[in-house]
Amino acid sequence: MKVNLNIDVHHLTRVEGHGNIKVRVEAGKLREARWDVVETPRYFEAILKGKHYSTAGIFTARICGICSIGHCLASVRATEDAFGVRIPDAAAKLRLLAKHAETLQSHWLHLFFLAAPDFLGLPDAIALRKKNPEIVAIALRLKGLANGICDLVAGRTTHPVSILVGGMARMPERAKLLAFRDQLDRSLEDISAVVGLFRNLSPKIPDFSRETEFVSLKGVNEYPFIGGDLASTDGVVKTEREYKAMTNEYVTPQNTSKWCKLSRDAFAVGALARINNNHGLLRPEAARVADLFGLRPVNHNPYMNNVAQLVECVHCTWESIRLIDELAADPAAPTMAEVEPRAGEGVGAVEVPRGILYHQYAYDKTGRITKANCVIPTTQNNANIHIDLNHLVKKFSADANMTDEKMELLCSMLVRAYDPCISCSVH
Amino acid sequence: MKYLGIAPARPKIGVFDFTGCEGCELQLANKEETLGPFLDAIDIVNFREVTTAQGDDYDIALIDGCISRGDEIERLKKIRQNAKVLVAVGSCASFGGVNRMKNVLDLAEANTEVYGKEFKETLYTRSIKEAVKVDLEIPGCPVSKAEVERIVQHLVWNVAFQFPNYPVCLECKQRFSTCRMEMGELCLGSITRGGCNAPCPAGGLGCWGCRGPAPAPNYKEFLALAERKGMDMQLLAERLNFFGGFEGVLK
Ligand code: SF4
Ligand code: SF4
Ligand code: SF4
């Protein structure tokens, strides 16, 4: 029997922001499969014009409540590039520590609260808490720890206050840093329980692959998070300042988010893209977890982004311990450089939880912005999600037992696997 | 959860997001140490960001984000009809938040700047009370989860909530933070309503006034002080307009 499917998800749940899924299959033939972003435009780039450099990072943090630290980091990096400021080493370490903590809080939130319920057949983490309070207790411990580190290092988890142009406002108290080091160390036990849990769920990862180009920062000595060259799995390599050659944004009528392309019709960014480009730079502890799930580059199953996030959680936990040790060894190190505004342009590229993020500003000589551009990870993923959705529906509508309900779940899980940050993508 | 053997009524709560960064909603899932009891005290029937359940039988609607498109007004009006109590959560919902800065732009020009020739529908930013009746506003960017918890407790007990009537400075002094104004940096703490526990001055940034005016703020004295200290007045204007809570202070 040839299937008929009709799916219309208005404002998909358990994702950040507003997007719609529409699928129509008639007698086994795909008529339509769409992923459209309908979030309201906010005009951040237009608002930035004329603003003082000290406003840019605080303002652009408000593009996204989940990755506000990442936005602030990309913003100050773009400004420092424009002004030719070199930040002190300790500031770079503090920023990376804040970045890891943000990655951890965001990945844990996504894995436990947004993604896991689908794998367990539950509507949400509230139901999960009733059914399995132990898992939710672990999730809250891990997420709480990550938020605590953000608070200490960045001054606040959502909308940081300590990340300034020129460095970091202050060095956190050594005793507090070391207390978090102990907690991170102890969290490794929780993390191995989580790895076990997801191992049990992994047979439920849908069997779907589509050859895709993956874009991320390109690490040299370390798995990359802040700045450096850009790379794609199709072999494109560009400098940070050439980012526009990677993103190629364009506007479509149905979407308030722009779409992007590179060597093909679309490309993907995010944890899976980072691992696909930088697998060899993962900590051995994290590489072992990747192996356990059969995650090897280049992996083309978008649902594996969930696994890639878990692998990164292991990596970031170990790296945070290392960074705290280094910072605690020199608690009096300077964290701020002199800042002298000058006319010019700068770019900041940062790997935020959902993929690579770019900010670019042009300044006049008084340190006020004359032009701004921000390219958000979900903006780069939207076209790829849309094309994935087409292939996914085609593949699974060949199954005579397919129902609207099952297909809706597969499609929703696909979009959720990208962990889209939709309000971010329309800024 | 029982106190002296009596189970309290669990209010049915719906959480709804409009134009914003969703940071305020995220706060509801933060403060992990008390998240369990918080969830036990309420019954979440609608919260798109965290659950697929989408009920209309809520008593309390928590609204975050501001209004910036026609369809949002329609959606908000329906929520207002369903809810007994409607609470605006965060600076976007209370004053428009950072989105208020959009209101000085020429929207056609801004649209061309961002999208080129493809026109996207948009309105000037409105706070929630500029679109429907609001019963309570909780400002903050992001909103303070501790304050939301306190307010929900009051809603459960049916006791009116009193916001602090002192400015941020008081809480800042209690934390022994070094005063940014004394150091020659701009800080709006003396004219901004307290209750956030002054995280910004403690973290190395002045207060940018996300909670809006304190009761009876002395703007004249504040502006005079800023001038005496030789602050950049253009920057001061930028700060006062940042979250939309001080609209009209600088005429
Ligand atoms: S008030 Fe701030 S944190 Fe809340 S939604 Fe608006 S921008 Fe985000
Ligand atoms: S730093 Fe700001 S909030 Fe704190 S005492 Fe000084 S003026 Fe008040
Ligand atoms: S210190 Fe000022 S800007 Fe910071 S949270 Fe409090 S009111 Fe908002």
Secondary-structure blueprint of this entry?
The complex is a heterodimer of chains A (427) and B (251).
Chain A: E1 5-9, E2 19-26, E3 29-37, H1 44-48, H2 53-61, H3 68-83, H4 89-120, H5 125-131, H6 133-154, E4 163-164, E5 167-168, H7 174-201, E6 213-217, E7 230-232, E8 237-238, H8 244-247, E9 267-268, H9 271-278, H10 284-292, H11 305-328, E10 344-352, E11 355-363, E12 369-375, H12 377-397, H13 404-417, H14 422-425
Parallel strand pairs in A: 6-9
Antiparallel strand pairs in A: 1-2, 2-3, 4-5, 6-7, 7-8, 10-11, 11-12
Chain B: E1 12-17, H1 23-28, H2 35-41, E2 43-47, E3 60-64, H3 70-82, E4 85-89, H4 91-95, H5 107-115, E5 136-138, H6 145-157, H7 168-174, H8 199-203, H9 219-228, H10 233-240
Parallel strand pairs in B: 1-2, 1-3, 3-4, 4-5
Question: How does this structure look, described?
Answer:
The complex is a heterodimer of chains A (427) and B (251). Chain A is an alpha+beta fold and 427 residues long. In chain A, 48% of the residues lie in helices and 15% in strands. Chain A has one domain: Cytochrome-c3 Hydrogenase, chain B, CATH 1.10.645.10. Chain A contains 14 helices and 12 strands. In chain A, the strands form 4 sheets. A 4-stranded mixed beta sheet of chain A has the order 8-7-6-9. In chain A, strands 1-2-3 form a 3-stranded antiparallel beta sheet, with helices on one face. In chain A, strands 10-11-12 form a 3-stranded antiparallel beta sheet. In chain A, a hairpin with a 2-residue loop joins strand 4 and strand 5. In chain A, 58% of the residues are buried. With 251 residues, chain B is of the alpha/beta class. Chain B has 2 domains: 146 residues, Rossmann fold; 74 residues, no CATH class. Chain B has 10 helices and 5 strands, in the order βααββαβααβααααα. Chain B has a 5-stranded parallel beta sheet with strand order 2-1-3-4-5. In chain B, helix 3 links the parallel strand 3 and strand 4. Chain B starts with 11 loop residues before the first strand and ends in an 11-residue tail after the last helix. The site of one iron/sulfur cluster has 11 residues of chain B, from helix 8.
